[in-house]
Design goal:
This protein is mostly beta strands and 721 residues long. It has nine helices and 33 strands. It has a 30-stranded mixed β-sheet that branches. A hairpin with a 4-residue loop joins β23 and β24 (555-557). The protein starts with a strand and ends in a 12-residue tail after the last helix.
């Protein structure tokens, strides 16, 4: 059996099984593809069938590859050669390639027009004007901006400023690249999906009441360009309902601030280099949330006004402010939304910054150099365990009116979990403390160590923090090397300390309800000068009982305090004289002066050492000394001493010694002095009055005379400066 095939090109085939053989019958022309017929002689019928199957599969594949959809539905002639491939390429080019090229051209032109329009919109400040709205509420500005891809913006000099009834802030980014949600712009929402920038500054300040706008407060607040210099709280504006709400929402996600140069929060300012990542959401007057924000501080300095709080600051912080409605959340309630984790180390160049928080206290802080570290966790306003704070300061100086206390300080605090709560235990230890006084070559007082301890379970910063705090202090041994230093605080009443030395031991405990403590004083070889020529020597033992103390009032109770004078010599030729003085009721007011008010009880061996200098100091005749001298003296009086106004007042003085008795009142206000006394022996009495050193006497009607003289204060009390 023979089959004849038409072909194009060379065809050579040899049946491997030997079932068929053939040869081409056409001729090969130079430069042309061979063509002709191929004659196959089949000697094996089964081989022919297999060959037919192969040819059928080849034709089916060829039809699918080179035919159009219309051609595929037409019957094919098995003897018809396939359509050349070159015709099919032309068909594909006309049907698909040209439309595709036209589409790409239209898309390229559209993208170019979009880029030109968008960049013109950005460069002209259109985005800033569209989002800013009310400049006093939300302001968005930039120096230049451009975009290469939809939603991706490159900006220089970006600024976002916001103001509401409570807080004002100003965020500036020198260079940034961000991706903005374009659809959110239609809803007046500046939603940045991702931003990366550097050269960043952020300042924020609270709006304060007019009464709080003191010079000390204002000098520490940041200045925000375009807003009023003093951020005073004004009348509350009428609330915006949802129908009229048109303020721009600001939402920054995935912020990566590589170089943060300044963060100024109210009175505390950070200047340095930090890497901050996080974000925040602000819908003015409606909702606000922050973070979580992580700050990696490479180096920096923390200041408040002109005071440096910390230098060479480095470490890491994490802060989160849960979302809250500023219309409903105020003051300390915001702390319920705050969570902070901080691990920081810093150098302390000075302790002068403490002065800012003491107000008008009569103390000045200076000097001091050391280091501090902090590792604390605050979650929703609660201090959590574990945590620690530690600081070491060398040669800190606390100035007094006539001197200063200088020493080394070590402060530490730890937060640990207790059985049913969290407890704070902290304290301050002072070492190598010296008292420096004006006019002294060497320190008059030296203290090797003093300890102050603080404990508290109330660690809720949003509700009465540390209200249950218990404070205790111990001064084991204070050496008094030269007692003359007390002259700086003695009223100018003619008595001066000329020498002596001793020790002081003290301890003190203070809780929310009361404070208790005691101090022991022992002075040996004490020398006093009374007037111009009289000197007195002896020993002094004193115990001060601090029966009550409240830090808020600044008052310390002195009831039960006692002073004993032993071995006195030099008073009117007496030797071994003694006297005791006890305050049955007494108070030390630190805020008013200090001022001492006390009801005193006194007893002494006799009156001669007291009568002689008193009579001479007041210019009375000397014959009164033996007359007024008696044994077993008992006296009581109300005393007020105010060092601020140089005031000494003695009221309701009652004294008895043998057959003698005396009633008196005296006062000294600066250079003015007056004393009124009624002295008697049995039924006899004598009235005496001394005004600025001039004495007068009353012999008749002394009782009525004394009552008239003492019916009102003998000297008006001066007003404190």
């Amino acid at each position: 059996m023979q089959f004849r095939f038409a072909y194009h090109g060379w065809l050579q085939r040899t049946c491997q099984s030997g079932a068929c053989s053939g040869q081409p019958s056409g001729e090969r022309n130079a430069g042309h593809a061979p063509h002709g017929t191929f004659v196959v002689t089949v000697r094996d019928v089964h081989g022919v069938r297999r060959w037919h199957a192969v040819q059928a599969m080849a034709r089916e594949f060829q039809a699918k590859l080179f035919s159009s959809p219309h051609d595929r539905n037409q019957p094919q002639d098995r003897n018809q050669p396939p359509t050349p491939a070159i015709d099919r390429v032309s068909f594909l080019r006309k049907r698909f390639l040209r439309p595709l090229l036209r589409t790409l051209q239209i898309a390229a032109i559209g993208a170019l027009v979009y880029e030109l329009a968008l960049n013109a919109f950005l460069l002209s400040g259109g985005l800033a004007r569209a989002l800013s709205g009310e400049p006093d509420t939300v302001l968005i500005q930039y120096r230049s901006a451009w975009s290469l891809l939809p939603g991706f913006v490159h900006a220089r000099g970006l600024r976002i400023r916001s103001k509401d009834s409570s807080i004002e802030f100003d965020l500036r980014i020198a260079r940034c690249d961000f991706r903005v949600a374009l659809r959110d712009l239609l809803r007046r929402s500046f939603h940045v999906l991702r931003v990366r920038g550097d050269g960043i500054t952020f300042v924020a300040r609270r709006r304060i009441a007019p009464a709080d706008a003191t010079p000390r407060t204002l000098e520490a607040l940041p200045h925000i360009e375009g807003l009023e210099p003093v951020p005073l709280k004004g009348p509350e504006p009428p609330p915006l309902d949802d129908a009229h709400y048109n303020l721009v929402t600001i939402e920054l996600d995935r912020v990566d601030a590589e170089s943060v140069h300044e963060i100024w929060l109210d009175s505390v300012r950070f200047v340095g280099d930090a890497h901050v990542v996080g974000g925040f959401f602000l819908r003015p007057i409606r909702w606000a949330s922050v973070g979580p924000v992580l700050a990696y501080v490479r180096t920096g300095r923390v200041t408040s006004a002109k005071d440096v709080l910390a230098a060479n600051l480095h470490g890491q912080t994490e802060a989160t402010v849960d979302g809250f409605d500023p219309r409903e959340t105020h003051g300390a309630e915001v702390l319920r939304r705050v969570s902070v984790r901080a691990t920081l180390d810093a150098d302390l160049p000075t302790v002068a910054f403490v002065q800012r928080w003491l107000g008008n206290a009569p103390l000045t802080f200076s000097g001091g150099e050391g280091s501090a570290s902090i590792d604390v966790t605050v979650r929703h306003g609660h201090v959590e365990a574990p945590g620690r704070v530690q600081a070491d300061v060398r040669r800190a100086r606390i100035g007094l009116s006539e001197g200063a206390v200088v020493g080394d300080l070590h402060a530490s605090a730890r937060v640990a979990a207790a059985e049913d709560s969290v407890r704070l235990d902290g304290g301050v230890t002072a070492q190598d403390v010296r008292l420096e006084m004006r006019g002294f070559q060497a320190e008059p007082v030296r203290m090797e160590r003093a300890d102050l301890h603080l404990g508290s379970h109330q660690l809720d910063l949003a509700e009465h923090p540390f209200s249950d705090a218990a404070v205790s202090a111990q001064l084991p041994v204070v050496q008094i090397l030269d007692a003359r230093f007390v002259n700086a605080w003695l009223p100018n009443a003619g008595a001066r300390v000329m020498g002596g030395g001793g020790t002081v031991d003290a301890e003190f405990e203070l809780t929310r309800l009361k404070g208790t403590g005691s101090a022991l004083l022992a002075i040996d070889a004490l020398q006093l000068a009374l007037g111009n020529a009289l000197r007195v020597g002896g020993q002094v033992r004193a115990r001060a009982n601090l029966s009550t103390a409240t830090l808020a009032s600044g008052r310390i109770g002195l009831s039960g305090s006692r002073v004993e004078v032993l071995g006195v010599s030099g008073l009117a030729g007496t030797q071994g004289w003694w006297a005791n003085l006890e305050a049955t009721k007494g108070e030390l007011d630190l805020l008013a002066g200090p001022v001492v008010r006390a009801t005193l009880l006194a007893e002494a061996r006799d009156t001669r050492p007291l009568a002689d200098p008193l009579i001479k100091a007041q210019g009375l005749p000397d014959w009164l000394v033996p007359v007024l001298s008696a044994n077993d003296l008992r006296a009581s009086a109300q005393v007020r001493v105010d060092t601020t106004t140089d005031t000494l007042e003695v009221r309701a003085l009652q004294a008895h010694a043998g057959v003698f008795w005396m009633q008196a009142e005296a006062a000294k206000h600066g250079a003015a002095s007056r004393a009124v006394a009624l002295v008697g022996a049995g039924a006899f009495s004598l009235g005496a009055e001394v005004v600025n050193g001039k004495a007068s006497f009353q012999l008749v009607g002394t009782g009525d005379w004394y009552r008239k003289r003492t019916a009102s204060p003998i000297l008006p009390s001066p007003q404190p400066p």
